[in-house]
């Protein structure tokens, strides 16, 4: 998300993100309470001090302390939408999504022009997979701030997840119109066009991105993907290698190179490439998960189950509610006769699948559990 991201980026060419630190600066740093010569002057001064303290704690990643400080400020200034926006965002850091939604909705009721509150609200709805409400919140943020490229990309991503490619294309074109030099919007639009079968349109978008940023690793990977789809492997590999020259830890470039190495039977170097990418600074959780999942797959193909188990545990550390990973890990633990660990892991998978309403996953978890009981 990195502490916060508008929605996880597509694992291949989608590039869509909000930096948590940037959000801290824009949300927490934006709060400035006017000090009036009235009965509330002292309360306002005290609120300012709590905000300063909360901001410092937030930047030190003391989320609990920051929440407590912003709660104090909110008590002193209960009608300040900006304070509630910061508090709502902080609550998401502790996975208190119901509390975050309640707080952010209150912020939007107090100030229906608070674009940051709607943006944060959209993020929380995504976390609980309430995509319709997430889209509505992000669209409201766009209506308030036409330059909010992250919100455009959030809506586009969600529409793409729902396979509503026509509407996704529209929103990405709006993003490009709002900010013609934003490379990520061209990549996202190209990706959707490719999914919808318009390869010619996708090529045009990727080429446009290449004109704007010819040394951008994401662009080079996207172009490499186009070559790979046409079985022009040498050209594809050249693009991937160029991307790695720009950014040696680029997740998608390393995934692509690892695929080539894997096809050549060179599993060790493929895993090394993936691990290198996984150590990249500011890597998104979705990219890290994709890398670790591929590492696990390569270890399994080699018959090295212990390596795969470590990779699955890395995924769970990043995303503790990845039910599919608990299921895969549990099955591997069963094969190693680590019954107690396997049962606990599969029970977690069962619980998460049940919470998510995933009937197929729930059935698989229960079947795996039945086999060890």
Q: Could you explain how this protein is built, in words?
A:
By secondary structure, the protein is an all-alpha fold. It is 75% helix and 0% strand. It contains 20 helices and no strands. α13 crosses α14. The longest helix has 19 residues. The protein starts with 19 loop residues before the first helix and ends with a helix. 47% of the residues are buried. Keywords: TPR repeat. It comes from Pseudanabaena yagii GIHE-NHR1. Pfam families: TPR_11, TPR_16, TPR_19, TPR_CcmH_CycH. This is Tetratricopeptide repeat protein. InterPro entries: TMTC_O-mannosyl-trnsfr (IPR052943), TPR-like_helical_dom_sf (IPR011990), TPR_CcmH_CycH (IPR056413), TPR_rpt (IPR019734).
Low-pLDDT runs = 1-30
Q: What is the radius of gyration?
A: 23 Å
Largest sheet: none
Order of helices and strands: HHHHHHHHHHHHHHHHHHHH
**Structural class of the helices, strands and pairings?**
mainly alpha
Question: How many helices in DSSP terms?
Answer: 20
Helical fraction: over 70%
- Strands, count: 0
**What would you call the shape?**
globular
End-to-end span in angstroms?
38 Å
What do the pLDDT scores average to? 85
Content of β-strand? under 5%
């Amino acid at each position: 998300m990195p502490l916060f991201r508008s929605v996880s980026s597509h694992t291949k060419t989608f590039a869509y993100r909000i930096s948590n630190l940037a959000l801290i600066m824009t949300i927490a740093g934006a709060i400035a309470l006017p000090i009036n010569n009235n009965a509330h002057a002292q309360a306002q001064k005290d609120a300012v001090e709590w905000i300063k303290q909360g901001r410092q704690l937030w930047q030190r990643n003391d989320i609990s302390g920051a929440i407590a400080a912003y709660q104090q400020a909110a008590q002193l200034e209960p009608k300040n939408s900006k304070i509630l926006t910061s508090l709502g965002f902080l609550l998401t850091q502790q996975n208190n999504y119901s509390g975050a939604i309640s707080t952010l909705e209150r912020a939007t009721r107090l100030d229906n022009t608070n674009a940051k509150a709607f943006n944060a609200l959209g993020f929380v709805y995504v976390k609980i997979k309430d995509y319709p409400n997430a889209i509505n919140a992000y669209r409201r943020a766009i209506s308030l701030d036409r330059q909010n490229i992250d919100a455009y990309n959030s809506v586009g991503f969600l529409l793409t997840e729902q396979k509503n490619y026509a509407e996704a294309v529209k929103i990405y074109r709006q993003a490009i119109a709002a900010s013609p030099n934003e490379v990520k919007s061209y990549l996202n639009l190209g990706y959707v066009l490719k999914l919808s079968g318009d390869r010619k349109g996708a090529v045009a978008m990727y080429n446009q991105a290449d004109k704007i940023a010819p040394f951008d690793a994401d662009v080079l990977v996207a172009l490499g993907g186009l070559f790979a789809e046409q079985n022009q492997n040498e050209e594809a590999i050249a693009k991937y290698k160029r991307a790695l020259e720009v950014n040696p830890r680029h997740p998608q470039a390393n995934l692509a190179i690892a695929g080539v190495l894997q096809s050549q039977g060179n599993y060790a170097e493929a895993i090394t490439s993936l691990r290198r990418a996984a150590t990249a600074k500011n890597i998104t959780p979705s990219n890290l998960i994709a890398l670790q999942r591929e590492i696990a797959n390569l270890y399994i193909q080699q018959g090295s189950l212990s390596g795969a188990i470590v990779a699955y545990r890395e995924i769970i550390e990043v995303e503790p509610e990845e039910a599919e990973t608990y299921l895969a890990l549990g099955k591997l633990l069963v094969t190693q006769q680590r019954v107690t660990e396997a049962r606990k892991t599969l029970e977690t998978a069962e619980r998460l699948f049940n919470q998510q309403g995933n009937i197929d996953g729930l059935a698989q978890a229960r079947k795996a559990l039945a086999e060890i009981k």
